[in-house]
Amino acid sequence: MKHIITFGTTAAALLAMAACSAQDPAQPPAQSPAPAVQQELTTKLLVSDGGTKALTVESAPSGPRVEATVAGQVSRDGAGCVILLGNDGTDWTLIFPAGTSLDGEAAVLPDGSALTRGDQVRLDGTRIPANEGASMCLNYARLLSVERAVAG
User: Fold this and answer.
1) For residues 97 and 110, is the Cβ–Cβ distance under 8 A?
2) Distance of alpha carbon 55 from alpha carbon 131, whole angstroms
3) Rounded to the nearest 5°, which phi and psi values hold at 90?
4) How big is the chain by its Cα radius of gyration, in Å?
5) Total-model pTM
6) Which end of the chain is more exposed for a tag (fewer CB within 10 A), N or C?
7) Which pLDDT tens digit goes with each residue over 104-121?
8) DSSP type of residue 29
9) pLDDT at 77
10) CA terminus-to-terminus distance, the chain
11) 52-71 burial code (b ≥16 CB/10 A, e <16)
């Protein structure tokens, strides 16, 4: 069976669709929501000979601070970035303070504490909203700027 639509039918259908989508002139046009404000984040990437990557913050994030304490196991994501697998099942890409270094595969914070894959730790820090500046790591939506690490 062949379906034939004549110009008159097509024009009527288009007019009907236009009439349905026309706005009431008394109503202001719908506005799209304002884009989310992204915090300014300047990071430096450290890479060990073994491929472990650690992000360090070079300048304090702008915007309000949202403090967080997260416990879990230090690990690496598929890109080699140091992460924390939280006890609640979430994973956090870690951003370390300026002055952090890599000693082999361990991230050594300025206070001398070291985080090595497999360590159980509690981290105190600041949540940072999703930031494409950290896109060299797989999860740049859940970021934690580490301020203090406690083993166990």
Assistant:
1) yes
2) 13
3) -85, 155
4) 25
5) 0.71
6) N
7) 999 999 999 999 999 999
8) P
9) 96
10) 74
11) bbbbbbeeebeeeeeeeebe
